[in-house]
Amino acid sequence: MILVFAEHQNGIFKKNTLEAVTYARKAAELMNLSCGALVLGNANSPESLGIYGAHKVWQFDDIHFSNFDSRMFAKAIADIAIQQQCSVLVFPDSTTGKSLLGRVAIRLKADSVSGTHTLPDCSNGFEVKKKIYSGKAIVTLSLNTDIKVLSLTGNSIPSEKTGSEVAVTPVTCELPEAQVAVVETNRVVGTVPLPEAEKVVSAGRGMKGPENWEMIEKLAQTLGATTACSRPVADSGWRPHHEHVGQTGIAIRPNLYIAIGISGAIQHLAGVNNSKTIVVINKDPEAPFFKAADYGVVGDLFEVVPRLQEALEDYYSS
Amino acid sequence: MNILVAISKTPDTTAKITLNNGGNSIDESGMSFIMNPYDEWYALVKAIELQEQLGGKVTIVHVGLSDSDTIIRKGLAIGAQDAIRVNANPESSNFVAHQISAIVESGSYDLVLLGKESIDYNGSTVGAMVAELLDFPYVSYANHLEMEGDNIVLNREIEGGIEKCKSSLPLVVSAAKGLAEQRIPNMRGIMMAKSKPLQVVDPVSVSYGAQTVRYELPTEKSGVHLIPADDMKELVRLLHEESKVI
Q1: Which of B158, B208, B232 sits opposite A109 (nearest CB)?
Q2: Which end of chain A, N or C, is more open, meaning fewer C-beta atoms within 10 Å of its C-beta?
Q3: Could you report the per-residue pLDDT of B46-66, keeping only the tens digit for each?
Q4: Which residues contact B129 (CB under 8 A, 6 or more apart)?
């Protein structure tokens, strides 16, 4: 059996959870196993996980799971994995998934990999690949313990609606007392958080000042994209720190990344070069970013961006 | 407060990666190595700030061979009081976590701090493993931390927001940007670091852990497709028809 940890946020299964469910289903097919999704706490329609590939859905509905304590969550996941005789555990590669993976691996004395982007190759044991050095190399790792624990990098395998709803089976185990108490949670509302965004419009020092950001926000709105910025822009206070993408900011992997007025220092590229399609708009034809780009526009951003805005509006209205 | 800070060694971000023998190993000749920035800028400096405020001691732990001593001395120059090097290659996160937890058990620490991830493997798992091995609470991605009586209050970065939480000590914390301000070692610190104790210990044996099979380089991008600055309709067409992202 393969267990996938079906993380939810206020009851909603996020994109990376659905991707992990589809991944677990595909891995199960490769290994002639079945795939069970584990829901901790109260979520909306756990049965819907069957649509994304789960053969079984287990739910441990307990009020304690409304408070995130990694030790309590890890014990529940590991205990249920043993109860259900699971040999592979899959986590979404989120802040929650990454906080749990190590704890669960230790509890189960299991080999683990965080952030794989490939299905296991079982022709010679159990091997998965992982991008390292900011995508400059790929390592193949072999997991040799009876139980294997891994997390799936977001946006590497699309979720697929191939199945149908399945009945939810209640499960339970003994829970330890929480060691960490969540006092309050504050989320930015109304926009897709950068780590989960499929489209990102990002701008840098070429913008000349914070007063010029309206056109970036407008472009993002038209595209349904999240806005981001380079480090110098965040450091000079032109934009909030949570928009900073790059090595010391947030690492992102959207389908579309549009970089406007960003030269493409290696530290910036390290955080964005796993994006599927990169568009670079810069007036300097020598900007290093063009080497990492799929599409490039050499020109004054104050002229190019309004033209792109117009072309996109035409596209979406037709 | 006695604090243990785990630091790791990573290639400089600008390092060019080349492989040996068709992918058996990474060619490290000519690569420069640094202290992992999340460990140095945030975990270590926060530990030193707490020590300055509350007293106690900051100890560095590192799993690596003697070629790591330069970055350990840098950590001592920034302000840690002493250091322990576990004399072994950091084979896997599991291996490293077992070494760190053995050091915690052999001493008396109230807090274990480390960066939220290393910039080479971006694994982000060692902290959680150490916490589990020691049965300590764990708070990841902390960008703010302060004492409140006997408890510790932290802000933790989550997708699109912040979670404020509270824990007792001892505790394992992984540090994100914002937890502290980077400090550059000064001349006095560098001189003092030379005489600070650096103890070398043998590793504990660990029976499992993921194994590296081989390395490969990614396929290069085919090259940028330049679009005339006055033809944004063409860019939109390509995004729709060729890359299918809109």
Answers
A1: B208
A2: C
A3: 999 999 999 999 999 999 999
A4: A102, A103, A105, A106, B93, B94, B97, B98, B101
